[in-house]
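>> Question from a student workshop board

For tomorrow's exercise we were told to take the sequence and the ligand below, predict the bound structure, and bring the output to class. My setup keeps failing. Could a helper post the expected result so I can at least see what it should look like? The ligand is magnesium ion.
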Amino acid sequence: MIKGCIFDLDGVIVDTAKYHYLAWKRLANELGFEFTEKDNERLKGVSRMKSLEILLEIGNKKFDEETKLKLAEKKNGWYVEYISKMDESEILDGVKAFLTELREKGIKISLGSVSKNAMTILKNINLLPYFDAVIDGTKVANAKPDPEVFLKAAEELKLKPEECCVFEDAVAGIEAARRANMKVIGVGSPEILGDADKVIDTFKGVTIDILNF
Ligand code: B16
Ligand code: MG
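>> Workshop helper replied:
Here is what the output should look like for this input. Compare the format with yours to find the bug.
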């Protein structure tokens, strides 16, 4: 029986992929190459430094470690500027109603994101009070598909992994949930998220019944 739900942030609760895209594109353009929305798909659910590696591979650029850290910092500065303007209106359809129902029925709720900016976003969109635990990029050493982020969430909720269900929009996240021995519901397209136990395209109309496996 499912006693806890773990939510990814980017692409599940809010669509921050568009802000990551704008910031990465700005960096690519500054370095003299193009970066498309299709390229951006490869960065979803991937850590900041790994994302930079992929971006530089696309632009065929090589830099030493110190420069790479500076580039990642630069991109993050722009990203932080974009997300500072976020508010409740950016919460994706149906998310708040679903979180409300889960709380009413006693299901525990945790965040499971590898973003180091997750706390800022949760505060800006006023969703922090819904969460019993928040595991983000500041608390884990290994990014998805490593299961660390979800296992830590279960631990903090004081639940066994098999009592938890993960909601994820990225292939790396689905793999991480599987490796954590949790149920996983994909949020997005079934063609991309086929390895999930179930796939929904939005939280609109979703009720607690979705947790019956
Ligand atoms: P930051 P999630 C991930 O968040 C994003 O999907 C990914 O695109 C991003 O690079 C990563 O967080 C790191 O984010 O640069 O803010 O630390 O999907 O795990 O919520
Ligand atoms: Mg995501």
